[in-house]
């Protein structure tokens, strides 16, 4: 576990955002990659479903952050219907970085240059402890469903 001063810059920004939200825990840097939900679950010794994946989509031309369980795939058409959007598609890497300031595989739910509309997969509610990316592919932090909703201002939605 790294202290706040030794974290990468993007992760320090996430840690600062978490502190502003009064989050109970802190960002941790792991020796192994957490780029995928399976890698994160293995590194943390938890179920893949307890990984709160941060996926960025473009919804009617605007970024949409989808916090989903690592055991789910997002159904973009269903998500568009549930959110009343005309079109939802996966964001390109440049769009992800522009919206979040972070790279795919390390996108945190907070610490972005500007607020991003967020939805939180209702399947995450079934896990008492969740793990989310901390701004890089090797950093994570623990949270829970209620805290994730609060810190992101997210809308609870079933995404598949």
Q: What is the number of helices? A: 5
Q: Which sheet architecture does the biggest sheet show?
A: 8 strands, mixed
What portion of the residues fall into strands of 2 or more residues?
A: 15-25%
Helix content: 25-40%
Return Rg in Å. Answer: 14 Å
DSSP E strands, number: 8
Gross geometry: globular
Classify the secondary structure makeup into a structural class. alpha/beta
Return residue spans where pLDDT drops below 50 for at least 5 consecutive residues: none
Mean of pLDDT: 92
Distance between the termini: 34 Å
The helix-strand sequence is HEHEEHEHEEEHE
Account of the protein in words:
The protein is of the alpha/beta class. It contains five helices and eight strands; from the N terminus they run H-E-H-E-E-H-E-H-E-E-E-H-E. The chain has helices spanning 9-20, 37-44, 76-83, 93-100, 145-152; strands at residues 28-29, 51-59, 62-69, 88-90, 117-121, 130-133, 139-143, 155-157. Strands 1, 2, 3, 4, 5, 6, 7 and 8 form an eight-stranded mixed sheet that branches. It starts with 8 loop residues before the first helix and ends with a strand. The model has no long low-confidence stretch (mean pLDDT 92).
């Amino acid at each position: 576990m790294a202290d706040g001063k030794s974290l990468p810059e993007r992760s320090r920004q996430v840690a600062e955002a978490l502190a502003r939200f009064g989050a109970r825990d802190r960002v941790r840097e792991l020796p192994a990659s957490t780029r995928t939900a399976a890698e994160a679950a293995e590194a943390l010794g938890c179920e893949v479903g307890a990984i709160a994946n941060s996926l960025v989509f473009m919804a009617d031309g605007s970024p949409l952050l989808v916090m989903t369980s690592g055991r789910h795939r997002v159904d973009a058409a269903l998500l568009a219907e549930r959110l009343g959007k005309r079109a939802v598609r996966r964001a390109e890497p440049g769009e992800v970085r522009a919206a979040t300031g972070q790279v795919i595989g390390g996108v945190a739910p907070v610490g972005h240059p500007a607020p991003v509309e967020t939805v939180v997969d209702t399947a995450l509610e079934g896990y008492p402890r969740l793990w989310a990316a901390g701004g890089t592919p090797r950093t994570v932090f623990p949270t829970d469903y209620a805290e994730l909703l609060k810190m992101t201002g997210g809308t609870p939605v079933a995404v598949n």
